[in-house]
Structures are given as structure tokens and as C-alpha cells.
């Protein structure tokens, strides 16, 4: 083949192979879909930042976001398999298809009311137009359980089920007197509302009678609610959390926001995502203050949904293996085994020595018989020598059967000695 043609073909083949590899790599990008919340909410912001970090950690991953109405819709997407990862509330109702990756932060139930409505507790909502939250979000589920526990029935005509943005508009327009928001402390929607003096935060508590003294304390009420709804927690909306408001801490019900995934999602991807989350917690905490308290220990405690196997592998990465964890027990067992073996070996040696001593007795008896026969040839009844030799052989055989003698080389020597002695007795008898 012409060298020039060969070099030209090689020159063209190398770029072609490189281009083909690049296209193949582009085509095999792994798509990960995450369901968030409204595009203006914390869920979406968190998902965006986490996705950027994950794509940098694993360039083969293409991170795709899907906005949603909230936690309930995110759970439905995980159950149906249309999304891989989502942020859900820890009290969400889901089947076995949902698995936890990490607890992110606690969301607080904010009750924002028009100041002119003079709402002071949950009982007062019966007379006012109230938004309970979208039925596809987590706010509605929590508020429904809270009102059921409180034995408070709100007239259906006074209820709305709007998302956060529409609820904000309804409050500002006067169509709503009160609205519930299950969001992290510092949420923009709450900040915008409280910047207007027409609105205020109302503590989560009830009144059991007509006088002022019949108001149940916030902490006692929420602690009671927790016995009915175990995934809820008592939390405070801190003093001046929203540009100088509230003027005092406001009692609220808290629900954890959880990073979750499909139960059949890839173990390696799940582990890498959790690793990325904690590796970038400083950056994420700076961009989203709610994540500043992100911690590996608390992130896997009190979870409703079981941990995904990949996440559990990450959390257990520093735990000692089986051998290291049980080193003392294994060492003790080995020591006991060696002592047992040594003891058994000693017993066996004693038994073997005892059997050796027994066969030595027969050696001595045969040797004495042969010596005596040679010394007293012709003077003693030779028939008695044969009887004695037969008795020795018979006794040795009985001890062999009863396992007091071993059928080993020592016994073969004894048989040879008996045979040699019998030949010697025969020779003496013939020469007499």
C-alpha cells in the first residue's frame, strides 16, 4: 500500500474517531428529572443550585427541572415514575415507591391575616374568608389535619384552595382575610406581605371558651397536635425574621422538607447526589439560608419514608466493617478455639500415649515368653508356652476390638513378634 495513502487515511481516521466518540458521549448523557414547586419558590431555587453542583460533579448527567403545585404533586410524580428526584414534605401520603435521601430543613406553617379582620386564633377563622392552600400542595394537608384536631369547622363558602401567588393576590385585594403558607422561615411571599402593615402573623392556637383566659397556650396546643400528627414539630417564627417583623416570636407548626427519590432509582446516582448535597452545603447555605443548618446526622432522623439504599450507603461510609466492629469478639472466639484445639490435642496425645503403653505391655510379655522358652528348653511343658502365647494374642485382639489399642503400625509390630515367637517355639519343640 502506498505510504502516502496510508498516512492520509490515518490522518482522517483519528479526527473521525474523536468526533464519533464525542457524539456518542453526548448521546449517552443520563437525564435526571427533579420535580420542584413554583418557579418563584425555595424548592425551585434549591433544585437549581443542587442540579448545577451535581452536573459539575457528574458531567454525564443532564439535570432537568419540572415545576409543580407542591409536595402532593411531587409525591404523585415519584409514585408514577415520571420524575426521579423531588422535594416533599415529611408528612406526605405516599406508597412504597418513595424513598428519602436527606432531610433539608423545617418549614413553618405561617398564618397571615389582614390586621383589620382582628383574627387572634384558629377559632376566629370561621367568620372570615380563608385560604387553606392548593390541594396539590402540602399546606392543605397539614391545615386540614390541624382543623380536624381542633374540632373547628369552617363554612365551605369561606374556604379557598389557592396556590401561594394567588393567595398573596387575594390578601392584597381584600378577597381573603387569612391564608396559610407552609414555607421556610424567610420565604419571599411572607416577606412581601409583612412589609405591608395591613397584614400580620397570627400564632397557631385555639380558644376553648368565650373568655380570654380560655385560650390554650401555643406550645401546649401544638404538643397535643403532635400526638395526633407525629411528623409535626413545635417551632417558632423568630423575632424580626422578616425585616423587623414579627415583634415577638410566633408559635407555629413545623414540617420537615425532605429530598426524596424513586425507590428504584440507581444506587450510585442516589449516593452521589447526597454526597454532592453535603459537599456543597456551605455554598448552598450561603445562597439559601434555610440550608445553613444542614447536617448529616439530623438529615436522616425522624424520616417518614425509608432511606434509599444509595443514601444509606453514603451515611454509613465511615462506619467500621464487620471485622473491625466485632474484632474483640472474633479475637475471643479465636482464642477459645485455639484453647479448645490445644486441649483436644493434649487429650488425644494422652489417649495415644496410653494406648502406646498398653501395646508395650504386650511387647514385653511376648519377649519374656520367648526368652523363657529359650532358657528352659525341654524342662517345661511346651504346650503351656503355646497357651500363653495364644492368650496374649487373644487379649490383644479383644483390646483392639474395644478400641483400647489402635490398629496402627504398633499393632502390626505386635503381630510380627507373636508370629516370630510362635516360630521360635516350634523350633524349640522340634529340637527337644
UniProtKB/TrEMBL annotation:
InterPro entries: TRAP_TAXI. Keywords: Membrane, Transmembrane, Transmembrane helix. PANTHER family: SLL1037 PROTEIN. It holds the Pfam family NMT1_3. The keyword Signal does not apply. The chain crosses the membrane at residues 6-24. This is NMT1/THI5 like protein.
Amino acid at each position: 500500500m502506498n505510504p502516502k495513502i496510508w498516512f492520509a487515511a490515518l490522518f482522517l481516521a483519528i479526527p473521525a474517531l474523536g468526533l464519533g466518540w464525542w457524539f456518542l458521549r453526548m448521546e449517552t448523557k443520563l437525564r435526571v428529572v427533579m420535580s420542584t414547586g413554583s418557579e418563584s419558590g425555595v424548592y425551585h431555587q434549591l433544585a437549581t443550585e443542587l442540579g448545577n453542583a451535581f452536573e459539575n460533579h457528574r458531567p454525564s448527567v443532564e439535570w432537568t427541572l419540572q415545576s409543580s403545585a407542591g409536595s402532593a404533586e411531587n409525591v404523585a410524580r415519584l409514585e408514577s415514575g415520571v420524575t426521579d428526584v423531588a422535594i416533599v414534605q415529611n408528612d406526605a401520603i405516599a406508597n412504597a415507591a418513595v424513598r428519602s435521601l436527606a432531610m433539608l430543613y423545617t418549614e413553618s406553617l405561617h398564618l397571615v391575616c389582614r390586621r383589620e379582620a382582628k383574627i387572634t386564633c384558629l377559632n376566629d377563622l370561621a367568620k372570615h374568608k380563608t385560604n387553606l392552600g392548593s390541594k396539590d400542595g402540602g399546606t392543605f394537608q397539614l391545615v386540614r389535619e390541624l382543623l380536624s384536631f381542633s374540632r373547628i369547622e369552617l363554612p365551605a363558602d369561606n374556604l379557598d384552595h389557592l396556590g401561594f401567588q394567588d393567595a398573596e393576590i387575594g390578601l392584597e385585594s381584600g378577597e381573603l382575610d387569612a391564608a396559610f403558607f407552609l414555607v421556610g422561615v424567610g420565604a419571599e411571599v411572607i416577606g412581601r406581605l409583612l412589609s405591608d402593615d395591613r397584614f400580620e402573623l397570627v400564632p397557631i392556637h385555639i380558644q376553648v371558651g368565650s373568655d380570654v383566659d380560655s385560650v390554650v397556650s401555643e406550645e401546649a396546643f401544638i404538643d397535643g397536635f403532635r400526638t395526633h400528627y407525629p411528623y409535626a414539630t413545635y417551632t417558632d417564627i423568630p423575632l424580626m425574621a422578616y425585616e423587623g417583623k414579627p415583634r415577638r416570636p410566633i408559635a407555629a407548626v413545623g414540617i420537615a422538607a425532605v429530598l426524596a427519590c424513586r425507590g428504584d432509582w440507581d444506587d450510585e446516582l442516589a449516593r452521589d447526589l447526597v454526597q454532592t448535597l453535603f459537599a456543597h452545603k456551605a455554598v448552598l447555605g450561603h445562597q439559601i439560608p434555610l440550608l445553613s443548618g444542614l447536617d448529616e446526622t439530623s438529615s436522616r432522623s425522624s424520616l417518614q419514608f425509608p432511606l434509599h439504599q444509595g443514601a444509606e450507603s453514603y451515611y454509613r461510609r465511615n462506619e467500621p466493617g464487620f471485622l473491625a466492629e466485632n474484632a474483640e469478639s472474633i479475637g475471643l472466639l479465636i482464642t477459645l478455639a485455639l484453647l479448645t484445639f490445644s486441649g483436644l490435642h493434649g487429650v488425644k496425645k494422652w489417649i495415644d500415649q496410653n494406648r502406646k503403653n498398653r501395646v508395650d505391655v504386650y511387647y514385653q510379655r511376648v519377649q519374656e515368653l520367648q526368652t523363657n522358652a529359650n532358657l528352659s528348653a525341654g524342662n517345661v511343658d511346651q504346650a503351656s508356652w503355646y497357651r500363653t502365647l495364644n492368650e496374649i494374642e487373644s487379649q490383644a485382639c479383644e483390646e483392639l476390638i474395644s478400641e483400647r489399642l489402635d490398629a496402627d503400625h504398633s499393632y502390626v509390630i505386635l503381630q510380627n513378634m507373636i508370629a516370630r515367637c510362635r516360630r521360635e517355639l516350634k523350633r524349640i519343640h522340634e529340637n527337644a
